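In this section we turn from sequence analysis to structure. A common task in structural bioinformatics is to predict how a protein folds when a small molecule is present, because the ligand can shape the pocket around it. The inputs are simple: the amino acid sequence and a SMILES string for the ligand, here adenosine-5'-triphosphate. Study the lines below before reading on.
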Amino acid sequence: MRIQLQVALTHLTGRTRQTFVSLTGVILGVAFFLAVSSLMRGSEKDFIKRLIDNSPHITVYDEYRLPRTQPAELRWAGGAIRISNVKPQTETRGIRGYREKLEFVESMPGLKVAPVLVGSAVLVFAGREESVTLSGVVPDKMKTVSTLEEKMIEGSIDALAANPNGIVIGTGLAQKFNLGLGRNVNVVAANGASRPMKVVGIFRTGNANYDETQTFTLLKRAQVMFDRPNRVNRLIIQLDDPYEARDAAQRIEAVAGYKSVSWIEASEDILSVLIVRNIIMYSVVSAILIVASFGIYNTLSTIVMEKTRDIAILKSIGFHARDVRLIFLLEGVIIGVVGSVFGLVLGAGLMKLLSTIEFRPPGITEKVQMPIWWGPEQFAIATAFALVSCILAAYLPARRAGRVHPVEILRGAA
Amino acid sequence: MTAVLRAEHLGRTLAGEVPVTLVEDINLDIERGEFVCIMGPSGSGKSSLLYLLGLLDVPTSGRVWLDGEDTSAYGENELANRRLEKLGFVFQFHFLLAEFSVLDNVTLPMRRLGKHGDAAIRSRGMELLARLGVAEQSAKHPHQLSGGQRQRVAIARALANDPLVVLADEPTGNLDSVSSATVRQILHDLAHQMGKTVVAVTHDAEFASAADRRIGLVDGKINADWRPA
Ligand SMILES: Nc1ncnc2c1ncn2[C@@H]1O[C@H](COP(=O)(O)OP(=O)(O)OP(=O)(O)O)[C@@H](O)[C@H]1O
Ligand SMILES: [Mg+2]
C-alpha cells in the first residue's frame, strides 16, 4: 500500500497544474454544495419550526374518521355485504366524556394537553358586526400548548381567569373595531345568546387572517354561551418532540376513538413540496461535483497515458493489475480528500458569510438573517459525495491502467 | 544439476488476420549459475523468447519450467509473483522510474514484496548500489546519471529480491565500449561468483564471448549453426 501511495503521490506532484485544476473543481464543488444545501435545509428547518410552533402538534376533534362497523358486517364477516349511505357519526355536542380522555392523554409521557371548545360567534361593536371564531380555553393549560402567551402585546391570557367576562382578541380585529384594552364588546352566539365582554388581552401572531378572526375566552364562559355544559370539542396537544406527533396521534386515536390529526398529517402537502425542493437542490449541487469529477477523470486519463511505460515497468517487476489499479484509485482518493478538506473550510466560510446577511422580507417589520443550518450531516454528505465522485472518476482510468500489458509496451519501446 | 529454466516446445503466435509466429518449438535447458547468450539477426524473435522465458508473455504452445515448477497453469497474478520473487529483468533502455530516486528505484521490488522492514530494505538497496559501483548516485534521479550508470542501477534493481534468474535484453545496446565492458563483467560475475543464472540477448560478439553458452536464433527457431557475422 505504501509503495502504491508513493507512486500515486509522485504522479500527482509531477503534474502540478492539472492536479491543481482538478483539486479546485472539487474544492468549489464541495464548498457550493455545503453553502447551498445548508441554506436550503436552514430555510426548510426555519419553515417547519414556524409550522410546528404556530399550530398544535396534535388536535383531537370531536369527529370520527370511519363510520362505525355495521352489525350486518360483524355478523357475516367477509360476506358480500354492501350498506350504502353510512357516514362517520358527528358528535354535535362535543367530545364525550372529555375528562377521562383528557386524563388518559395527560398520563402519556412527553406531552401537554389543553381542552378547547371552539365555536363561531359574532362580535358586535358600535354598530359593526364581525363573525369570529371563539375558543373557550383554560388559561393555565392553554399557555403550555401554544405560543399565544408570547404573542401577547397587551394584557395576558391569565387575565381571563380573573375576569370570567374577559375576551382576548388579535390586533387585526382590534384595529378594525378600534378597540383597546378594557373596552366592552357584545358577543353573540349562534343560538342568539348575547353577552357583553371586556377586552383583556391583544395578541399579534403576524398571520393577518389569524389576528382578525381568532378570539379566546374562558372555557366555562364558552360552554355557557354555546350551551354545551361540560363539553369540549378539541383537545390541543403539544409534544416535547414534535416529530413524534404521527405516532402519538395514532395511539391517542386508538384509545380515544376520536379523529386525532398530527401537524405532519395536516401539512402533508407542504412537507411533500419540501421533499421535492430538496431533491431539486441536491441534484443541482451534485451536478457541480459531477462536473468536477470529469476534470479528475481527464487528469487521471492523461496520467495513465503518459505513464504507460512506468506501468509496464511496475508490472514487469511483478506488480499485480490490482496494485496498479490501486495506484490510480488512490490518486482519485487523494484529490477527493484534499479537495474535501479545503472545500469544507471554504464552504464553512461561505456559510458564515451568508449567515451575516440580513434582509427584510415583505410584510414583516423586523430584519431577518439568512437561515443557515450548521448540521454536521451537511458536511458529511458533501464529503461523501465528493469522495464517491472522485473514486468513480478514477475508476475507469484505473481499470485501463490495470490492463496495460507490459510486453506490448516493451515491444513498442524497443 | 537441474535446469533452473526450461523451455519445452515453446511457441508464440500473434493472432490476427495474418497470424505472426514470433518463436516456434524452442527447447532449452538452462542450468543454475549458467551465463547464456541468445544471439541472432534482428527480428529473429530474441526479445520474444526472453519475454516468454521471463513469464512476461504467455506462450501459445509448449511450456516454461521455472525452478522445477510448470508455469503453464499459472494465472496473471501467480506469474507476477514469480517475476517478483525469482526473476530479474534488465532492458536495453534502462526503464527506471523517472520521478523516483536511484535508491527508490532499486528498493521498489523489495517494497512490493514486503518481506523486510524499511531499514533493512534501505541498507540492502545501498549494498546493491555499492556492489555495482553507483552508491554515490543513490539520491540522484535517473536523468542525472550517465547511460552506463543507469544500466547498473537497472541491474541493481533486477537483483533486489535476490532472484534465481536475471534476464537481460541487449543490456549494452546503448552503451559505449567502456561501459559495455563493465556491464559485461558484472553479468559475468553474477553468474560465476554469485551463482545467478544469467540469460542475455545480445548483438555484440565480444559480449557473447564472455558467456558459457551461445544460442543462435533464426526466424524464431534455434539454429545451432548460426555464427555472428
Ligand atoms: N506486435 C507485433 N505484430 C506483428 N509482428 C510483430 C509484433 N511484434 C514483433 N513482431 C515481429 O516478431 C518478430 C520477432 O520480434 P522480436 O522483437 O522478438 O525480434 P528480436 O530478435 O528481438 O529483434 P531485434 O534484434 O531487432 O530486437 C519480428 O519479425 C517482428 O517484426
Ligand atoms: Mg529485441
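The mean pLDDT of chain A is 87. As an exercise, try to locate the residues that line the adenosine-5'-triphosphate site and compare them with your own expectations.
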